[in-house]
């Protein structure tokens, strides 16, 4: 039977949003109080892979899950934000099979119990949802839990985990500056806050040497067994294959199913992290993971659906939630790689929120995009006005026009394309909120 459009759990969250602020609290005092009332479920988890970083957190989480499930293990996964439904934040492990999004009854029950324990005290909804993570993951059996940081690290609500099997820190760039600082070194220091004394740390590929230095120095100060991309492990493409190497040896693997060269580093970090967490990674496991890994909304290709039907015939449509300058550079590189293989005019359909750097994001596409269409976003009060966003694109050297919706932008692209030219390549992105809107409107929500 189809699930109701507005489920029990979503009704409870809607009520909580009316009572508590949605965002983040730069303190762990309130969530520790709440977890104490719940019996400290965060201390009763299976081995935890704790993941932080500005970009690549979701991808490395997806690779870790794919590796562990290829071994036949049950894997709980916590990610944020969600794209379409709150349930996506909690994937419950299934022995011998892929994990499933949390059942609505189970989710609603956990929300009720956490809200009741809180007793109306001041707290953010994110802290409540994080407490729900620990309650669900402590009560449902699994072999491993992968827990993604929400924002930063040091004061993130997930950082009540005291003994992770491994802490993983992915690429760091400028984002959330009001909370984390306006230099990559300051942001790196905040992300490094998830490291725990004497416990393993894996550092992913870093664009900024200064950020890498902060992470390495912190790990060394805490006496953490450390693996650094490019020094202790790495991966590269060779003859259409992914070659992974670390101190334990070399593996010749298929290229990852997730597109883009940046995924080579993400896959490598996941392999090294799973090993650091104490699990063997066989070539057969890694091969299966590379070909089965899924991560919705990150360079995801849409081939059918209601919105796809509005696009020009033969158009290649991609969605990606990357929303900061670092992500823009990675996505632009992926688009340039697609262009090398098959030339098509590139159009952007972009929506962003007002805490991001739109000029920095657009600048990465200045030499490869034909036109930009800026659109509104549903589900957030922080969406940038499409007119203001179009001005930001102009400032980055792009031709841009505001549109009323993604569907309108797709139809406008159809009007502009040269019938004699190859069908266009269209990238819809700039915000995970926008990607969620698109997946819902297209009829292709995450599974």
Give a quick rundown of the structure.
The chain has 15 helices and 17 strands. It has 447 residues and is an alpha/beta fold. One of its GO terms (molecular function) is ATP binding.
What does this entry look like structurally?
The structure is a single chain. This protein has 447 residues and is an alpha/beta fold. It has two domains: 8-292, UDP-N-acetylmuramoyl-L-alanine:D-glutamate ligase (3-Layer(aba) Sandwich), CATH 3.40.1190.10; 300-442, Protein-Tyrosine Phosphatase, Chain A, CATH 3.90.190. It contains 15 helices and 17 strands. It has helices spanning 8-19, 29-37, 57-70, 104-118, 125-139, 177-180, 184-191, 209-221, 262-276, 283-292, 325-341, 358-363, 386-395, 406-416, 432-442; strands spanning 48-52, 75-78, 90-94, 97-101, 144-148, 166-169, 201-203, 226-228, 233-238, 241-246, 249-254, 300-302, 316-320, 346-350, 369-374, 400-402, 425-429. An eight-stranded mixed beta sheet has the order 4-3-2-5-1-6-7-8, sandwiched between helices. A six-stranded mixed beta sheet has the order 12-13-17-14-15-16, with helices on both faces. A hairpin with a 2-residue loop joins strand 9 (233-238) and strand 10 (241-246). The longest helix is centred in the last third of the chain and has 17 residues, at 325-341. The radius of gyration is 21 Å and the shape is globular. The model has no long low-confidence stretch (mean pLDDT 93).
